């Protein structure tokens, strides 16, 4: 009772009575900053009778399952609505269409499973920023959202955050009805590929953030699609890039791209030898594109060693022949001596054969040694 009295007293003191008394149950209303806050009050629905002066409405940490056309009555002054972490599962048709000046809508941290095709449509398309990070519950929600972006008349949307939604793919042309989008955040999803048409129709994009996804490389189609975006800021860091030869065209693209890319964060995740190496500037040999050429090189070294061996053998042979040539006189003499000796032995043998038989002769005959034979001569004669 006392607390209530103090509150009423303070309320009367700090703001005009008609404003303070209008503040809905479970909320705090700040007339000076034109803000209404309903934080962690276990509210089951969006509170009614939000004061008309409100520009910013913050309703977070509650238990609101559904947002519908009756959730927000005509609140022409509201420009910002934060509805994060309310366990919202359903956005019905025309949920925000009474908020004709709504520019900023934060629906992050919810569990959206059902999004009506016209859930986001507001006459005049005033919305400039939509935060749907960690808010899509399953793949039906992605399909629903794609339709809602198409039918929402969001021609004025400048910023879209779809981070942390486990997105494995993006339907082609998903953003093609957001012609003025300038910043697209797709951080911390499970994207593995960009297809041609993924970013079609976005002619004013300035920032594309694809960090913390599951990209291992970018195909030629993907690089063409990214190239079409022009010289914008593209964030590609913190992806598990596999630095094998298939990443060659991506490296070449990084080498030559004039877009503003976070090249310092674009690093190899595997193979181990290259992990944490910057992709830009990687040589084609470093990423193993020259494996067949390396085999040829090995072949070539083998051939070279054979050629070398042949050369060495040839050289040794030539030296041998040269030595023989230098000694030709000595050789000649030796050969003549040898021949003479053998002739003598044979003559002796003939003689022995005719005259008598001496068993010692057989042994001496095999060895045509001139000295031995002179001995033999001396003996026999
Ligand atoms: C919006 O704010 C203006 C100026 O403060 C005020 O005159 C008008 O009544 C407000 N609109 C509503 C619906 O309360
Ligand atoms: C969207 O909301 C999340 C959490 O509520 C916040 O971290 C993120 O910065 C917001 N996105 C933008 C683009 O401001
Ligand atoms: C997504 O969740 C909703 C609500 O739980 C369910 O009705 C729907 O069938 C789910 N969709 C898929 C593809 O699992
Ligand atoms: C990515 O999202 C998961 C759950 O969706 C969360 O646990 C994780 O902290 C997020 N990581 C980053 C870097 O934001
Ligand atoms: C990238 O550039 C570096 C030098 O800046 C070059 O050595 C390398 O071969 C290039 N990589 C590719 C795949 O073109």
TrEMBL record:
TM region(s), chain numbering: 306-326
Provide the Gene Ontology terms for cellular component.
plasma membrane
Keywords, sorted A to Z = Leucine-rich repeat, Membrane, Repeat, Signal, Transmembrane, Transmembrane helix
Q: Which region is the signal sequence? A: 1-20
Cite a single GO BP annotation.
negative regulation of canonical Wnt signaling pathway
What InterPro entries would the database entry show? Cys-rich_flank_reg_C, Leu-rich_rpt, Leu-rich_rpt_typical-subtyp, LRR_dom_sf, Wnt_signaling_inhibitor
- The LRRCT domain covers 239-290
Query: Can you tell me which residues the record assigns to a coiled coil?
Result: none
Superkingdom of the organism of origin: Eukaryota
PANTHER family recorded: LP06937P (PTHR24364), TROPHOBLAST GLYCOPROTEIN A-RELATED (PTHR24364:SF22)
Q: What is this protein called?
A: Trophoblast glycoprotein 1a
């Amino acid at each position: 009772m006392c607390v209530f009295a103090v509150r009423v007293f303070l309320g009367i003191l700090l703001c005009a009575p008609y404003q303070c008394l209008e503040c809905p149950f479970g909320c705090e209303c700040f007339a000076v900053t034109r803000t209404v806050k309903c934080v962690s009050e276990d509210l089951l629905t969006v509170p009614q009778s939000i004061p008309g002066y409100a520009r910013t409405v913050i309703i977070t940490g509650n238990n609101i399952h559904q947002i519908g056309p009756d959730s927000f009555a005509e609140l022409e002054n509201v420009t910002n609505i934060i509805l994060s972490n309310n366990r919202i599962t359903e956005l019905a048709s025309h949920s925000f269409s009474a908020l004709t000046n709504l520019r900023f809508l934060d629906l992050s941290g919810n569990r959206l499973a059902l999004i009506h095709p016209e859930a986001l449509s507001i006459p005049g398309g005033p919305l400039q920023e939509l935060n749907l990070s960690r808010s899509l519950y399953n793949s039906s929600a992605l399909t629903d959202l794609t339709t809602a972006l198409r039918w929402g008349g969001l021609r004025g949307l400048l910023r879209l955050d779809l981070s942390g939604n486990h997105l494995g793919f993006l339907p082609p042309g998903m953003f093609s009805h957001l012609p003025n989008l300038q910043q697209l955040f797709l951080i911390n999803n499970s994207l593995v590929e960009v297809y041609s048409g993924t970013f079609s129709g976005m002619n004013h994009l300035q920032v594309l953030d694809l960090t913390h996804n599951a990209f291992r490389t970018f195909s030629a189609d993907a690089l063409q699609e990214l190239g079409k975006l022009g010289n914008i800021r593209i964030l590609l860091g913190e992806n598990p890039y596999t630095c094998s030869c298939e990443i060659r065209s991506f490296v070449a693209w990084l080498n030559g791209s004039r877009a503003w890319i976070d090249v310092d964060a674009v690093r190899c995740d595997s193979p181990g030898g290259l992990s944490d190496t910057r992709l830009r500037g990687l040589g084609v040999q470093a990423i193993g594109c020259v494996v067949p050429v390396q085999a040829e090189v090995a072949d070539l070294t083998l051939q070279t060693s054979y050629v070398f061996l042949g050369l060495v053998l040839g050289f040794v042979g030539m030296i041998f022949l040269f030595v023989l040539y230098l000694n030709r006189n000595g050789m000649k003499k030796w050969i003549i001596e040898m021949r003479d000796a053998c002739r003598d032995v044979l003559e002796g043998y003939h003689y022995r054969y005719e005259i008598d038989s001496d068993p010692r002769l057989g042994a001496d005959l095999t060895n045509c040694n001139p000295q031995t034979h002179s001995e033999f001569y001396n003996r026999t004669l």
